[in-house]
Amino acid sequence: MHYINLPVEELESSITESLAELAVFTGVDRAYIFDYHWDRGICTNTHEYCAPSVSSHISDLQAVPLSEMTEWVELHKQGKPVVIDDVSLLPPDSSVLKLLQPQSVRSLYTLPMMNEGKCIGFVGFDSVRRTYCYTEKEKLMLQLFSQLFVNVKNRTLLEQRLISEKDKAEAASRAKSEFLANMSHEIRTPLN
């Protein structure tokens, strides 16, 4: 993972590549990142890797209402992971079960992405072909990746702000130059 010197436009594909490497290393079938949009009451799947025989669901998970996963969201807000070793053991009326069944998820582990004490999203790992219990070493490694993705997100936001501010400054400079050129022309015209 070499995010430090990577141009912003290459970060997106690099994040997806990192998810793929992480999924292959841990043997999970699907790895993904979601952003929380607290103001709108939804979360959105931004990146996803699926093992070759596993179907993608990123397009289905673009505005998932937080009301469909309240227990999950509350754990993430507290900085705690969500661990479901066997989805089939969830209560039949569980909203999380209804969310996971169409994706054929059998086990999952999600980690909140915390930024200065606030949950901004989560990294998730699904097992589709079998149930799976993560080891403590895997959990620690996934936690490190979660924080790495937060740092990448912060860097991307910072660089986008800098680009925006630079564009504004250049626009202001152009406007000032045009104003001065017009004023100069207006002053010279009567004098001629």
Radius of gyration: 23 Å
Could you list the spans in which at least 5 consecutive residues all have pLDDT below 50? none
Main β-sheet, in a few words?
6 strands, antiparallel
Binned strand content: 15-25%
What structural class do the secondary elements suggest?
alpha+beta
What is the string of SSEs from the N terminus onward? HEEEHEHEEH
End-to-end CA span:
66 Å
Cross-sheet strand order for the largest sheet: 3-2-1-6-5-4
Question: Count the strands?
Answer: 6
Mean pLDDT: 76
Q: Can you tell me the overall shape?
A: elongated
Q: Could you estimate the helical fraction of the residues in percent? A: 40-55%
Number of helices, where a helix is a run of at least 4 consecutive DSSP H or I residues: 4
Summarize the structure.
By secondary structure, the protein is α+β, with helices and mostly antiparallel strands. It has helices at 8-26, 70-77, 95-100, 136-191, and strands spanning 30-37, 42-50, 64-65, 82-84, 107-115, 118-127. The protein is built from 4 helices and 6 strands, in the order H-E-E-E-H-E-H-E-E-H.
